[in-house]
Design a protein that fits this description.
The complex is a heterodimer of chains A (796) and B (180). Chain A is an alpha/beta fold. Chain A has six domains: 134 residues, HPT domain (Four Helix Bundle (Hemerythrin (Met), subunit A)), CATH 1.20.120; 110 residues; 62 residues, Helix Hairpins; 182 residues, Heat Shock Protein 90 (2-Layer Sandwich), CATH 3.30.565.10; 145 residues, OB fold (Dihydrolipoamide Acetyltransferase, E2P), CATH 2.40.50.180; 126 residues, Rossmann fold. Chain A contains 28 helices and 23 strands. In chain A, strands 10-14-15-13-12-11 form a six-stranded mixed beta sheet. A five-stranded mixed beta sheet of chain A has the order 2-4-5-7-6. In chain A, helix 1 packs across helix 14 and helix 8 packs antiparallel against helix 9. Chain B has a six-stranded mixed beta sheet with strand order 8-1-2-11-10-9. In chain B, strands 3-6-7-5-4 form a five-stranded mixed beta sheet. Chain B contains five helices and eleven strands. Chain B is of the alpha+beta class. The N terminus of chain B is likely disordered. Chain B has a single domain, classed as CheA-289, Domain 4 (OB fold (Dihydrolipoamide Acetyltransferase, E2P), Beta Barrel), CATH 2.40.50.180. The chains are: A alpha/beta (796), B alpha+beta (180). Chains A and B meet through strand 17 and strand 18 of A and strand 4, strand 5 and strand 7 of B.
């Protein structure tokens, strides 16, 4: 029983997949059909699609769907026989039917009750077109009948045995017709004979073409056909009587077709594979960093050379593997694009505009998960282009443009990104109009409006609640929509660029990374923390000094070539910058980031480098953390957070920030006497050192773990540090290594305190520790230190 | 008969011996019945008080490792760590319970607890050991428990000479640590 249920479930799943694909194609084909209504191939293709869905759905007992698709099939049957001409109203009815079918599929997918959906409206709309008088089939000459029905029989016969059991009442009418037709033995026999002949020829032809276009389905059809054909020849009885038998034979497992060029793979399997590749990339990064360290340490050693060789080979293979797995997840963007002819048709019709859609680069590939996310944004963009962009016909003619508006939807690759561009030849946007609208709606303030550049003004269209439409229509003007575009694209780590010229048109460019899991990032250091900035958002990095920073309305800005870029200290943006003074005022690093036309400069302490990182989530406990989009694991096993640049940029104007406050010079200015930092978890060590240092008239700072120590060191500039080599959490050597990365600690005197009489001489040299003293500490030890540092002490 | 056994330093296999022994003492042959009557709880200290987390929710206990601070999280979230390729948030239970902060020292441990898809590491002062607590000796949360903690307590386990505050891991984990 359970097995049966599972099998059934599988069959239904297959059906849903197939039906979805067919319906998607139908949308495209139907719109194509509107412009070439006499394309027989296309008509047949559409007919077959409806027929297939009808057949399978009736087999699976989805009555409403069968009912609906049956009627659609009837209409198409008349269309392809040219008994009915395609009018715009008929096309509307057909498209509405397709939409309803999609709805039913959706309901089945969600395990709802598909029979509850009302299709009567669609049925009656379609029936209207069927009611027109029709020539009876018997009147058509035999040959004609043969030709016409050949294909129909091909397909119908296979399904009919199934249908005959389950077909709902509505189809009985047709069957009765079929019976009258088939009861004519003479015709039937002739049909069968000619059919068999034709079939044989067909088969030969098709076998030749097998390599390029054979699909499993077709083979199955043919095989069934062949069987039926044999029976028909063996027993000269009406075909219907042979059916029970043929059904039995159909039930027998058929040999699998020899050529199988594609397989369907569960997406979760690919996701797992991608995750594993992610882990591998992390491992590779680690291997490379170990190899580098080994090279520094034992330069020239044979084994080290070999290790480096292995590391670079693994790097190569990993990169290839990553590309390979990524490629298996790639689908053509056409999967999304192909929906748009229909969308454009519907919207332009509703708005009474004539719009032509040109699709370019539909074969461009990108990750499946990305494809799923770009559909909605594109619908909104296209909708906006037709509603706001393309002008009404009269206005176009007056402007000397062709009456038919043009929208170009194109996709192409650029490095590790895919660019999706929509260009319309409509009225374009006037930045001044956008600004005044935004002011009116209270989206921006007057000062903001004044300072806004053209690009920033275009960015306004992505603000929630913003709309330039004079009146709210069904299609747009409610002010939701374009902000959806922004959030969805940002979710994909993508960026949006808008260019527009009045009366020429508007172009919206989406730049999206090819894959979501592994990205390129820029690593930066702020105070004692490291962060990764996705490279897609980074425009450039610049090194400036404090004289390059200007003030506009009391905010820091940087003049970079022709533009003025507001500066924000990243520490302040993340709320970790309070009292921290870790910027070297002679070497200030600025990472210029851009999000939807808004550019800001993030001031950081240091640029570490560029790295390929694997995005990991922070888990369920930490969801929706402001300014943080995820985390990654570095080569040394530490965790680095990935910044959510869009949220930082949008928050930037609300942040209190003053870059100058974070200059290390400030800490020196504030100092009145020399100071020392004692970092140890043991009270007796802290106590004895601080006693001696107080006597020498030093300011004392104490910390009981390395993190506290680093915090104190980034708020002040001390002249000497005593560090317990066993300090939790990460030992004294690591503390020293980190403190050396602070600009004002490059040559501060660091004294290691050993509590057990031992120390690692090599590490002491590596992290540049100046002296080691041993517990218990005596005045002599401290005096020795004092002597060495007196020359160096800095007091403003 | 004592209800405690020092399991922490020995292998977990000891637990079975102990169960057998307990069963013998109680003249019950079936160790399974015993499991139904006792809760196994990991006991730890937080500001001189004994707390317990059901052993079924404890993934592992680790020494403090370097963590990465996460901005814009609640005060008690210390940061995240890399636990064999998984990113796990670390919570200072002292801060979570409104107690005085104590710097991480040699005795500090991180209890990695999980429930459903939530996994969090809790920093505690010190790990005691695994306790067997008779289910019927677990009493509901007494009214004198501070309000800041009440939500996270599922009851109090009474043993021969001490009591243990048993934590409601579900409430602790599912509350989340992001600022909203």
């Amino acid at each position: 029983m359970a097995d049966n249920m599972e099998e059934m479930e599988e069959i239904v799943q297959d059906f849903l997949l197939e039906a979805e694909e067919l319906l998607e194609e139908l949308d495209e084909d139907l719109v194509k059909l509107e412009s070439s209504s006499d394309d027989t191939d296309l008509l047949n293709k559409i007919f077959r699609a409806f027929h297939t869905i009808k057949g399978s759905s009736s087999f699976l007992g989805f009555e409403t769907l069968t009912h609906l698709t049956h009627r659609l099939e009837d209409v198409l049957n008349k269309l392809r026989k040219f008994e009915l001409s395609l009018s715009s109203e008929l096309m509307d009815a057909i498209l509405a039917g397709v939409d309803k079918a999609k709805e039913i599929i959706e309901v089945i997918k969600e395990k709802g009750d598909p029979e509850a959906i009302d299709v009567e409206e669609n049925i009656s709309a379609l029936s209207k077109f069927l009611e027109e008088p029709q020539e009876p089939r018997e009147e058509i000459s035999e040959e004609e009948l043969l030709k016409e029905q050949e294909e129909e029989i091909k397909e119908e016969e296979l399904l009919e045995n199934v249908e005959s059991e389950q077909e709902p009442e509505e189809t009985k009418e047709e069957k009765a017709e079929d019976k009258t037709k088939k009861s004519d033995d003479e015709i039937e026999a002739e049909i069968q004979r000619l059919l068999a002949q034709r079939m044989e020829e067909d088969k030969k032809k098709r076998q030749q073409k097998k390599q390029e276009e054979q699909k499993q389905e077709e083979i199955k059809k043919e095989e069934t056909q062949k069987e039926e054909e044999k029976q028909a020849q063996a027993q000269p009885k009406p075909a219907q009587e042979t059916k029970p038998q043929s059904q039995k034979q159909q039930a027998k497992p058929k040999p699998k077709p020899v050529i199988e060029q594609t397989i369907r793979v569960d997406v979760t399997r690919l996701d797992d594979l991608m995750n594993l590749v992610g882990e591998l990339v992390l491992g590779k990064n680690r291997l490379v960093s170990v190899a580098q360290k080994a090279e520094e340490k034992f330069e020239g050693d044979d084994i080290v050379e070999e290790l480096s060789g292995v590391a670079s080979q693994i790097t190569l293979v990993t990169t290839d593997l990553q590309m390979g797995v990524m490629k298996t997840r790639m689908v053509q963007v056409g999967k999304v694009f192909n929906k748009f002819p229909r969308v454009v048709r519907d919207i332009s019709k509703e708005l009474n505009k004539e719009v032509e859609l040109i699709i370019e680069g539909a074969e461009t590939e990108l990750d499946k998960s990305v494809v799923e996310e770009i559909n909605d944004p594109l619908v909104h963009i296209i909708r906006n282009a037709i509603d706001h962009g393309i002008e009404p016909k009269e206005k176009r003619l007056a402007a000397g443009k062709p009456p038919k508006g043009k929208i170009v939807l194109s996709a192409f690759h650029e490095g590790n990104y895919i660019i999706i561009k929509t260009t319309d030849d409509g009225g374009g946007m006037d930045p001044e109009v956008l600004k005044s609208k935004a002011l009116e709606k209270g989206v921006i303030t007057e000062t903001e409006a004044r300072q806004m550049t053209k690009e920033e003004a275009f960015g306004l269209i992505f603000k929630p609640g913003f709309s330039t439409a004079q009146k709210v229509s069904n299609i747009s003007g409610r002010g939701v929509g374009m902000d959806v575009v922004k959030t969805n694209i940002e979710k994909l780590n993508g960026t949006i660029e808008v260019t527009s010229e009045i009366s020429k048109g508007t172009t919206i460019m989406l730049k999206i990374p090819l894959t979501l899991a592994i990205i390129q990032a820029l690593l930066v250091k702020v105070t004692k923390e490291f962060f990764a900035i996705p490279l897609v958002s980074v425009v450039e990095t610049v090194r400036i000094n404090k004289d390059d920073i200007n003030k506009v309305e009391n905010r820091d800005v940087l003049r970079l070539r022709d533009s003025i870029i507001p500066l924000v200290y990243l520490g302040d943006a993340l709320g970790i910058g309070k009292n921290k003074k870790t910027i070297d005022s002679k070497e200030i690093y600025v990472v210029v980031v851009a999000v939807a036309e808004k550019k800001i400069g993030l001031v950081v302490d240091k640029l570490i480098g560029r790295e390929e990182i694997v995005i990991k989530s922070l888990g369920h406990y930490l969801t929706n953390i402001k300014s943080i989009s995820g985390a990654t694991i570095m080569g040394d096993g530490s965790v680095t957070l990935i910044l959510d640049i869009p949220s930082i940029v949008s928050e930037a104007s609300n942040i209190e920030t003053n870059v100058e406050d974070h200059f290390a010079d400030k800490a020196i200015e504030m100092k009145s006497k020399p100071s020392c930092l004692i970092v140890s978890a043991k009270d007796e060590i802290k106590h004895s050192i601080s006693q001696y240092m107080k006597e020498a008239d030093f300011d004392i700072y104490e910390a009981s773990n390395d993190k506290e120590g680093l915090d104190i060191a980034s708020e002040n500039v001390v002249d000497v540090i005593f560090i317990d080599l066993d300090i939790p959490i990460n030992d004294g050597y690591n503390f020293t290594r980190l403190i050396r990365t602070f600009p004002s600690y490059k040559d501060v005197f660091v004294v290691g305190v050993s509590t057990d009489g031992t120390f690692d001489k090599e590490k002491v040299g590596e992290v540049l520790m100046n002296k080691i003293i041993f517990h218990p500490i005596t005045i002599k030890d401290v005096d020795a230190v004092m002597e060495m540092i007196t020359k160096k002490i800095k007091v403003a | 008969m004592k209800n405690e056994v020092d399991l922490f330093d020995k292998s977990l296999a000891m637990a079975e011996d102990y169960e057998e022994q307990l069963a013998k003492n109680q003249k019950k042959s079936d160790a399974l019945i015993l499991k139904d009557e006792y809760d196994q709880v990991v006991g730890f200290i937080l500001k001189d008080e004994l707390f317990g987390i059901d052993i079924l929710n404890v993934e592992e206990i680790i020494k403090p490792v370097d963590f990465t601070y996460v901005p814009n999280t609640k005060e008690f979230v210390m940061g995240v760590i890399n636990l064999r390729g998984k990113i796990i948030p670390i919570v200072d239970l002292r801060l979570k319970f409104g107690l005085v902060k104590k710097p991480i020292d040699i005795e500090s441990r991180i209890i990695v607890a999980h429930m459903d898809e939530y996994t969090v590491g809790f920093i505690v002062d010190k790990i005691e050991r695994v306790y067997y607590i008779e289910k019927k000796s677990i009493e509901p949360t007494p009214p004198n428990i501070p309000q800041t903690i009440e939500k996270y307590v599922r009851g109090v386990g009474k043993m021969d000479n001490k009591i243990m505050t048993l934590l409601n891991i579900e409430n602790l984990l599912k509350e989340g640590g992001g600022l909203n």
